[in-house]
Amino acid sequence: MNAEDKQFAVIGLGRFGMSLCEELSERGAQVLAIDINEICVRQAADIATQAVVADCSNEATIAELKLDDYDLVMVAIGDDINANILTTLLLKDAGVKTVWVKAKDTPHCKILSKIGADKIIRPERDMGIRIARNMLDKRVFEFSELGSGISLAEVVVTARNMGKPLSQHPCANSDETQVLALKRGPEVRKAPDMDMEMQVGDILIITGPEDVLSETLRKL
Ligand code: ATP
C-alpha cells in the first residue's frame, strides 16, 4: 500500500500530534486531524486533509467520525489522562483496527496495554533512550523498536572489522540477529553476501530481538 492510499486520524494536536500530521501529509498520506480545541484545529486545517473540532472521549463522536474506517488512529492527547484512556477504549470498542497511543508513564502504559492499545509511545523516554545510545556510541547511528520486542539498528563498520568477511561481524554471527542490508556510500545492498569483505564506514542494517541486539551492540 502506498502512503497516499493510507488513511490516518490523529486525535490531539499538541506539538506531538501536529508534527505527526505535518510529516504524514508531506509524505502524501490522508490525515484527519482532530482536537477539542478550535485554535489547534484551525492551525491543522492548513496541513491535514481534513481537520475537525471534536471531543473524542465521547462515544457518539467516535461513531459519527467513522473512525473505524481508518487504517491507523493515533491518540496524542497528553495531560488529560482520563480522556486519553477513554478515547483509546472507545476506539477499540468501535472496532478500529490499529490504535497507537501516546503515554505518560509506566502505570499509564499498563492500562493502555490492558485495554488493547496496539502500540504505546512515550516520546520523551523513547527519544532520551535513542539519544543516550547515540551519545555512548557513535557506531550506532539509529536504534528503533519495531514492536513485539524486535528492533532495528544501523551500525557503522569500524577498523576492527576492516577486510573481514561480513559473516564474522558479531551481528551477523548470531542465530538471533540478521543483517538485512549493507550501505556503502550511496549504494544499498539488500541481503548482502556473507562472504563480502567489510570496509570501514560501511553501514549494516540489522534486526533482532531488542535485548539480544542491545547486548551485541554493547560488545562491539
Ligand atoms: P505535546 O507534548 O504534544 O505538545 P501534551 O502532551 O502537552 O502535548 P496536551 O496539550 O495536553 O498534550 O494534549 C494534546 C492535545 O489534545 C491538546 O491540543 C488538547 O486540546 C487535545 N485534547 C485533549 N482532550 C481531548 C479530547 N477529549 N478530544 C480531542 N482532543 C483532545
Can you offer a commentary on this structure?
With 220 residues, the protein is an alpha/beta fold. It has two domains: 3-121, NAD(P)-binding Rossmann-like Domain (Rossmann fold), CATH 3.40.50; 125-218, Regulator of K+ conductance, C-terminal domain (Alpha-Beta Plaits), CATH 3.30.70. The chain is 32% helix and 27% strand. The protein has seven helices and eleven strands. The chain has helices at residues 15-26, 38-45, 59-64, 81-93, 106-114, 123-136, 210-218; strands at residues 7-11, 30-35, 50-53, 72-75, 99-102, 119-121, 140-147, 150-156, 178-184, 187-190, 203-209. Strands 3-2-1-4-5-6 form a six-stranded parallel beta sheet, sandwiched between helices. Strand 2 (30-35), helix 2 and strand 3 form a beta-alpha-beta unit. The model has no long low-confidence stretch (mean pLDDT 90). It binds adenosine-5'-triphosphate. Adenosine-5'-triphosphate is lined by residues 11-17, 34-37, 40, 55-57, 76-80, 83. Residues 5-121 form the RCK N-terminal domain. Pfam families: TrkA_N (PF02254). Residues 138-220 form the RCK C-terminal domain. One of its GO terms (molecular function) is monoatomic cation transmembrane transporter activity.
